[in-house]
Amino acid sequence: MTRPPTAAQRRVIDAADPVSGRLRGTQAQLAALVRRGLAFRHPRPPHDHFLTPAGHRVREAPPEPPAGAAKADAPAGGADSGVFAARVGGEEDAGAAGPARLREVHSAWQGLLELRRMTNPDGETGRPCGWERAHLVRAAALALEAAGHRPAGPGGTDGYRVRATPQPEAVAVHGPDEATLRACAATLETAGWQSGQHTDPRTRARYLLASPRRT
């Protein structure tokens, strides 16, 4: 079984950029993470270090509880970790969009574009990358929030809501009206997604089915 990262390594992982996974640490710390397969050194200058998919999984997992601690004391998977997350709609604080939040969203979107540049084989920033395909709901929500769309509040009727679907590489985007859906579709298209409107057979409500474009 692979040993969990040390406390110092975990701090470096937790401090990584929330989207691109760019790391900051001493050369010894970064080299140790590379040896463990949790980070890689980018071949192009300035040769920054970034989390690998395994490193992202470590970062998103709750920390291991201390030895002998009761399982009930371990952090819940849905607990607030203080890490940036795009608002998918329905959150208690969905209506809060002050300057600090706007800066966070802008920084996360710029980090995502940089991640596209580094990980897409052709360096294309207009096409979603592997991270987005592995985090469909979060990626679509970030594209919408970064473009200024308002997520729905807890009632779920006054803004967009992004939800997972049974279909591979597709999310559902719900909105209060046709204008919202059209605006969300235009934003997602600009961000490298493709979408089409559908009707829920039970509720007859219209929604978008969106997926990241491959070409």
List the helices and strands and how they pair.
Blueprint: H1 7-14, H2 27-35, E1 39-41, E2 49-51, H3 53-60, H4 99-119, H5 130-134, H6 136-146, E3 161-164, E4 171-174, H7 178-190, E5 193-199, E6 206-212
Give a count of the beta strands, DSSP E runs of length 2 or more. 6
Low-confidence stretches: 63-82
Strand content: 5-15%
Number of domains: 2
- DSSP helix fraction: 25-40%
Number of helices: 7
Largest sheet: 4 strands, antiparallel
Radius of gyration: 19 Å
Order of helices and strands: HHEEHHHHEEHEE
User: Overall 3D geometry?
Assistant: elongated
What does this 3D model show about the protein?
- Residues 67-78 have a biased composition (Low complexity).
- Residues 41-83 are annotated as: Disordered.
- This protein is of the alpha+beta class and 215 residues long.
- It folds into two domains: 7-68, no CATH class; 99-212, no CATH class.
- It is built from seven helices and six strands; from the N terminus they run ααββααααββαββ.
- Strands 3-4-6-5 form a four-stranded antiparallel beta sheet, with helices on one face.
Question: TL;DR of this structure?
Answer:
This protein is of the alpha+beta class and 215 residues long. It has seven helices and six strands. 35% of the residues lie in helices and 13% in strands.
